[in-house]
């Protein structure tokens, strides 16, 4: 009887241990990188809070959170941050960067929101950050208080076309003499394949500066995307780890639930594969699964045909 009781107890323990073992799942989280601009009026670095949300605050759910370092100012900085969503999510996401900072007797509060973004969280999605940098000179008359101007980047000169991004430029007060400010400004913009024009409103003149080129990728520490294009995926395809038919991986890019676009760097020597970027890594896909992105930003701009390794 004692031996039977011991066997029953042992069997019960084994069953309990089996029941508590987590069930394996093939679902993966999603690493999301997004770009943003954030001001810092202090000459010290700041630690801001960052979130990925399903809706702008105060609504929605926080999918992931963390912190990001804002460099010492004063200035407005174009930055990026990466967060990982713990479980699959296929809806739009918003990136929020916020904080309240007190230095001495001065308190500065800022809450920035980027998005919405579309994401495919069955794998990895990266939202490339793009920016335009330009310089201008502004002579401020004497006896003027501290002021600011609004920097705009547009797809056409004269205030026309589509507004791709804005930023704020600050100017210190002047006393008895005029002061000339030689400013270099970086404005975060959405990806755009054509020329753009910048202007600063509120500095006495809003003359156009340009044409300029949108530069993408460097803020992420990934790739120099000058000369790259964006391709729209037309049908599901495996990712290839090399530009060869026998190099297909088990990861499949799908067109559902939304149309997917990818940065395209060029073609292989046989011109049968495009080299694409996903989450700061490069892969290959057959050329017949991508077409030029037809949206209002890229407008069917041709994909690059230069040979890349």
Structure summary:
The chain is mainly beta and about 300 residues long. It has one helix at about 1-20, and strands at about 30-40, 45-55, 60-70, 75-85, 95-105, 105-115, 130-140, 145-155, 165-170, 180-190, 195-200, 210-215, 215, 230-235, 235-240, 250-255, 260-265, 275-280, 280-285, 290. The chain has 3 domains: about 30-130; about 130-215; about 230-290, SH3 type barrels (Roll), CATH 2.30.30.40.
Helix and strand element order: HEEEEEEEEEEEEEEEEEEEE
Helix content: under 10%
What structural class do the secondary elements suggest? mainly beta
Instruction: Count structural domains.
Output: 3
β-strand amount: over 45%
Q: Please give the count of helices.
A: 1
Biggest sheet details? 5 strands, antiparallel
Contiguous low-pLDDT stretches (5 residues minimum) are 1-28, 120-128, 217-221
Gyration radius, in Å = 25 Å
Instruction: Please report the total strand number as a whole number.
Output: 20
Q: Kindly report how far apart the N and C termini lie.
A: 73 Å
> What is the overall silhouette?
globular
Overall mean pLDDT score?
76
Give, in spatial order, the strands making up the sheet with the most strands.
19-18-17-14-20
Word description of this protein:
This protein has 309 residues and is mostly beta strands. It folds into 3 domains: 30-128; 131-216; 229-292, SH3 Domains (SH3 type barrels, Roll). The chain has one helix at residues 2-20, and strands at residues 30-40, 46-53, 62-70, 75-85, 93-103, 106-117, 130-140, 147-154, 163-171, 179-189, 195-201, 209-213, 215-216, 229-233, 237-240, 248-253, 261-267, 273-278, 281-286, 290-292. The chain has a 5-stranded antiparallel beta sheet with strand order 19-18-17-14-20, with no helix packed on it. A 4-stranded antiparallel beta sheet has the order 3-2-5-6, with no helix packed on it. Strands 9-8-11-12 form a 4-stranded antiparallel beta sheet, with no helix packed on it.
């Amino acid at each position: 009887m004692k031996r039977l009781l011991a066997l029953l107890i042992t069997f019960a323990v084994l069953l309990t241990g089996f029941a508590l073992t987590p069930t394996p799942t093939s679902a993966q989280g999603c690493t999301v990188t997004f770009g943003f601009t954030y001001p810092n009026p202090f000459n010290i670095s700041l630690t801001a809070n960052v979130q990925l949300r399903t809706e702008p605050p105060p609504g929605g759910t926080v999918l992931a959170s963390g912190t990001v370092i804002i460099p010492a100012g004063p200035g407005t900085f174009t930055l990026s941050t990466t967060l990982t969503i713990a479980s699959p999510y296929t809806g739009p996401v918003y990136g929020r960067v916020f904080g309240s900072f007190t230095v001495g007797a001065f308190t500065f509060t800022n809450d920035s929101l980027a998005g919405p973004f579309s994401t495919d969280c069955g794998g990895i999605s990266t939202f490339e950050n793009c920016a335009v940098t330009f310089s201008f000179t502004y002579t401020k008359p004497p006896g003027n208080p501290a002021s600011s101007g609004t920097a705009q980047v547009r797809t056409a000169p004269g205030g026309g076309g589509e507004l791709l991004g804005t930023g704020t430029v600050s100017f210190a007060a002047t006393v008895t003499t005029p002061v000339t400010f030689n400013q270099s400004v970086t404005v975060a913009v959405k990806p755009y394949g054509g020329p753009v024009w910048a202007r600063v409103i509120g500095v006495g003149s809003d003359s156009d500066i340009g044409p300029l080129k949108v530069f993408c990728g460097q803020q992420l520490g990934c790739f120099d995307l000058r000369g790259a294009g964006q391709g729209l995926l037309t049908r599901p395809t495996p990712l290839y780890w090399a530009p060869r038919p026998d190099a297909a991986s088990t990861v499949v890019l799908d067109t559902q639930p939304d149309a997917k676009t990818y940065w395209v760097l060029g073609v292989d020597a046989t011109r049968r594969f495009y080299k694409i970027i996903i989450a700061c890594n490069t892969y290959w896909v057959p050329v017949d699964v991508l077409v030029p992105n037809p949206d209002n930003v890229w407008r069917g701009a041709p994909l690059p045909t230069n040979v890349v390794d």
